[in-house]
């Protein structure tokens, strides 16, 4: 009996591994970045708004069974590539009070759960920025959507997020006052992702 039980357990474990392997085989990954889209941000200093963009970033979106809600998203951003078309402000962004790029050259965001919300998707995830890791949600749409993504082999991802800079120690010292530097930073993106890159 013990031998039969051991054989049955081994067969069961093997079937689980085979099922997991099949699931992994059905996952399809798409990638893009600064060469196929934009990643922009906007804020305000002393009541005056400004916009900027990151010149270097990558996005990876892996779908299981062609279902975006069953996918995983990973974003990497080179913080030194921030450009607001103002030399003095751009230098300040690279400094210790803001991004501290010498110590923290890169920011990353990884999804933890993705759900459809009407015509959009809501992705809960974790943002790692300036040595701080915290929850950060994003909203986005896909064009095309659903199974058509796999058939076409590419899609456009369009969306954004509202980031509280103080949660990530961005803007310290004289820049900490929200009356001087607005806490909310609006992030927007539009990027085409392609399979097999």
Describe the protein in words.
This protein has three helices and eleven strands; from the N terminus they run H-E-E-E-E-E-E-H-E-E-E-H-E-E. The protein has 197 residues and is an alpha+beta fold. A hairpin with a 2-residue loop joins strand 4 (57-64) and strand 5 (67-78). The protein has a single domain, classed as Lipid/polyisoprenoid-binding, YceI-like (Lipocalin, Beta Barrel), CATH 2.40.128.110. The relative contact order is 0.17. The protein has an eight-stranded antiparallel β-barrel with strand order 1-4-5-7-8-9-10-11.
Main attributes?
eight-stranded antiparallel barrel; single chain; 52% strand; 197 residues; 3 helices; Lipocalin; alpha+beta
List low-pLDDT spans. 6-25
What is the first-to-last residue Cα distance? 52 Å
Number of helices: 3
Total number of distinct structural domains: 1
Number of strands: 11
User: Which structural category do the helix and sheet elements fall into?
Assistant: alpha+beta
Give a short overview.
The protein has 197 residues and is an alpha+beta fold. It has three helices and eleven strands.
List the SSEs and their pairings:
Elements: H1 2-25, E1 27-33, E2 37-45, E3 48-54, E4 57-64, E5 67-78, E6 82-83, H2 87-94, E7 106-117, E8 120-129, E9 132-143, H3 148-152, E10 154-164, E11 184-195
Antiparallel strand pairs: 1-4, 1-11, 2-3, 2-11, 3-6, 4-5, 5-7, 7-8, 8-9, 9-10, 10-11
């Amino acid at each position: 009996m013990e031998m039969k039980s051991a054989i049955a357990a081994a067969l069961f474990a093997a079937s689980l591994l085979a099922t997991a392997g099949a699931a992994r085989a059905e996952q399809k990954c798409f990638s893009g970045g600064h060469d196929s889209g934009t990643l922009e941000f906007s804020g305000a200093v002393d009541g005056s708004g400004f916009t900027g963009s990151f010149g270097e970033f990558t996005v990876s979106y892996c779908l299981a069974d062609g279902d975006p809600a069953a996918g995983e998203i990973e974003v990497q951003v080179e913080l030194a590539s921030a450009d607001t078309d103002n030399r003095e402000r751009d230098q300040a962004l690279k400094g210790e009070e803001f991004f501290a790029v010498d110590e923290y050259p890169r920011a990353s965001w990884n999804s933890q759960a993705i759900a459809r919300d009407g015509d959009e998707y809501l992705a809960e995830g974790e943002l790692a920025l300036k040595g701080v890791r915290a929850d950060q949600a994003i909203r986005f749409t896909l064009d095309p959507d659903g199974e058509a993504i796999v058939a076409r082999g590419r899609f456009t991802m369009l969306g954004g997020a509202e980031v509280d800079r103080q949660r990530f120690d961005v803007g310290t010292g004289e820049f900490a006052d929200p009356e001087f530097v607005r806490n909310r930073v609006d992030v927007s993106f539009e990027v085409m992702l392609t399979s097999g890159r």
